[in-house]
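Readers of this paper often ask what the protein records in our data store actually look like. Below, we set out a record of this kind in full and without editing:
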Amino acid sequence: MGFGTVAGSVIMILATMFVVMVVTYNSFAWFNYMTKVTEYVSDDTAVRVSIVLKIVSAKYLSEKNIIVFNLTNEGMDSIIIGDKSDIVLDYIDTSGVRRLELLEYGKWYPVKLYIGNYTINISNTSYVEIPPGTICEIVVSPSYILEQTHPVILVFATPSGVKSSYGFTP
């Protein structure tokens, strides 16, 4: 074997070792990053698990074309709902067209809080705190008149990702 062959072999071995070192470093960095992401997500989930919103009832008032529903906080912490929260309505209108609407605050609003044996009327406000065990009555105004023989799906969602869905037939 000549000097050129030995030098070429050494260069190839060094280049291979360099590639293995770079791949190994990147793998460890990626695993470390994923561990941190997993910890962050599990902490975020742990914070949100203590808040449980549930739509417990809903009814459609056809003479006013509004839906009135009750949202309760079954969690351990208070939650604030308001102009950053949204409602999604999935329904069939009277012309037979399926409607999927994203309704922002203004098309819906809270009207009452039921705390134990007390009822609190809510005036025009942009935020309402719902303590644990409290029921909040909310009024929704769909854009079209609902066909009362088809089911309606109602979803309430907050910016923090807490949501509740409810299906009913008017």
